[in-house]
What does this fold into?
Amino acid sequence: MRIGRHMPTRSKIVQAAITAQQIGCEAIQIFASNPTAWRPPTGGEADCAAFAQTARELDLDPVVLHAPYLINLAAPDESNWEKSITLLTWTLKRGALLGARYVVFHTGSHRGAGVEAGCQRVAQGITRILSETPPEVMLLLENDVGAGHSLGHSFENLAAILALLPAYQDRLGICLDTAHLWGAGHDISTALAASQVLDQFDALLGLERLKVLHLNDTEKALGSHRDVHARLGEGIIPEEGLRALLDGSRLEHVAVLMETPIKTDEQDKEDWGHDAGEIAKAKNLLSTNLTHDI
Ligand SMILES: [Zn+2]
Ligand SMILES: [Zn+2]
It folds into this structure.
């Protein structure tokens, strides 16, 4: 299992990779464009190549892109759907330039059209996107807290979408976010409960399809359908459950990436020393496991 975090880039992607390695990351996630904008940047190909090379040299593996939040492949509205396809297609192409192995995206909201219609819509969108993008970049569906009409909060839902895409099995996988699991009502509070959640995932999707685990704590209640991330130990998800999820024997192939708030000073400058401690904390959850196994 390789541990890393989502890194802010402030348009300096090479520096983000260097900082990630300095604070102890073995893997990295970034946004390739403004997460709340439809229009991606133009140019920047040389920067992408420099980032890919730096990540390789620093052994940051995998490189993961998080797609913009606006993307909604389940959208019943035609213009919204087309814009979502265009932006996610761009993100996968950019992923190839950045040396990314995975692009993670949120499955979106059917906005009242119904779960089945929403899943069909997502599958149609994915078919168009994957037929036009480099085969080396995989698309990962991230689980959701399930607020409103959003899809992806249940494993059945994620499995239903993948089942509609048999031709692209090797280009599609899943990203599980621990705060989203919690928000959606999946109890991961104890070792037993967490292992039952993994059993359920395995039965419906197969653990080999899980490629990325977003390791986040949250202060929101189990089943609250709220998506607010907290640093490890600063929320209410018990450490016992998180440690059980990180049990390397079941998820050895999975990259663990934190998306926790980074501490900043009065000038809004990141406290990387503090965050290095957070990465160490996550690694410790893993090593406690190893000692446990022996
Ligand atoms: Zn996400
Ligand atoms: Zn996440």
About this structure: The chain has a mean pLDDT of 94. The CA atoms of residues 286 and 292 lie 10 Å apart. The domain at 2-293 is CATH 3.20.20.150 (TIM Barrel).
